[in-house]
Automatic annotation (TrEMBL):
GO cellular-component term (any): cytosol
SUPFAM superfamilies (alphabetical): Bacterial luciferase-like
A molecular function (GO) term: oxidoreductase activity, acting on paired donors, with incorporation or reduction of molecular oxygen
Protein name: TIGR03620 family F420-dependent LLM class oxidoreductase
Chain ranges of the Luciferase-like domain: 21-101
Length: 280
């Protein structure tokens, strides 16, 4: 098996906002991985730049969108990057959501065909993870990938996902957090990132319903209870305890996405959480 150690906690961040300086700071704080969101392109140049700027931290994609990127091109990029930085790159791929893709037909068959092309292109099963929410794709993540990287989930999803994945697969959920002890202000910050677009996208809302959330919880900008679960808030110790719940019920790793008012610098949040989680 390819030896890739993502540690217990990482960072999820849009690839457009992730610089070599940010990566070096994340590494110094003790985070094990940076997950590059917002569908990085097939050349994966951003991952290569971040790896070149750091010594230890794993760079992962969270995720490369199968509709927008050629599997053959992605495989070529994967080989280039892993040749230069062995054991430090993890390819996350996924199907995205139907509202963004007019060609969104037979998504499961598309995932399988994409993985077949990655196989042919030399991307090993244990060098990739799948964006997986529902049981069918979670099972595929255990069979055809190192594991799963679910987005916009709760610890209850991690518990159920572990049952489906089995004991050995990687389970690395993304978790939004707000470091703010003022509950009303924290929920306002969270709603600005959660309600639009995610509570309007069917793959996420269907998954929340499977977890027991009601139409009333999901309607509008989301109930307080739902927002608090999707983006826990409080002081650093409170938030650290909330994200650790994923590990307690079956996740191996949690990718933290700090939410800040007015898109302020997330590093103060990440520094406080690194201390609370005892990363260094």
């Amino acid at each position: 098996m390819t030896d890739i150690d993502v540690g217990r906690f990482g960072i999820w961040r849009r690839w457009q906002e992730t610089s070599p300086e940010f990566a070096r700071e994340a590494e110094a704080l003790g985070y094990g991985a940076i997950w590059l969101g917002s569908s990085p392109g097939a050349d994966l140049d951003v991952a290569e730049r971040l790896l070149a700027a750091t010594d230890r931290i794993v760079i992962a994609t969270g995720i490369v969108n199968m509709w927008a990127t050629s599997a053959d091109d992605v495989a070529a990029s994967y080989r280039r990057i892993t040749d230069a930085h062995p054991g430090r790159f993890l390819l996350g791929v996924g199907i995205g959501h139907p509202e963004a893709t007019r060609e969104y037909q037979s998504p499961y068959d598309t995932i399988v065909a994409y993985l077949d092309r990655l196989d042919a292109g030399g991307v090993p099963v244990d060098g990739r993870v799948l964006a997986a929410l529902g049981p069918k794709v979670l099972r595929l993540a255990a069979e055809r990938a190192r594991g799963a990287h679910p987005y916009l989930v709760t610890p209850e999803h991690s518990r159920r996902a572990r049952e489906i994945l089995g004991p050995d697969a990687l389970l690395a959920p993304e978790q939004k957090v707000v470091l703010d002890e003022d509950a009303d202000r924290a929920r306002t910050t969270a709603r600005g990132k959660v309600a639009h677009p995610y509570l309007k996208l069917s793959n996420y809302t269907n998954n929340l319903r499977r977890l027991g959330w009601t139409d009333e919880d999901i309607a509008g900008d989301g109930s307080d209870a739902l927002i608090d679960e999707l983006a826990p808030h409080g002081d650093a110790a409170t938030v650290a305890a909330a994200v650790t719940r994923h590990l307690e019920v079956g996740a191996n790793h949690v990718a933290l996405q700090p939410l800040t008012a007015d898109d302020a610098d997330p590093l103060p949040t990440l520094r406080a959480l690194a201390q609370a989680l005892k990363l260094t």
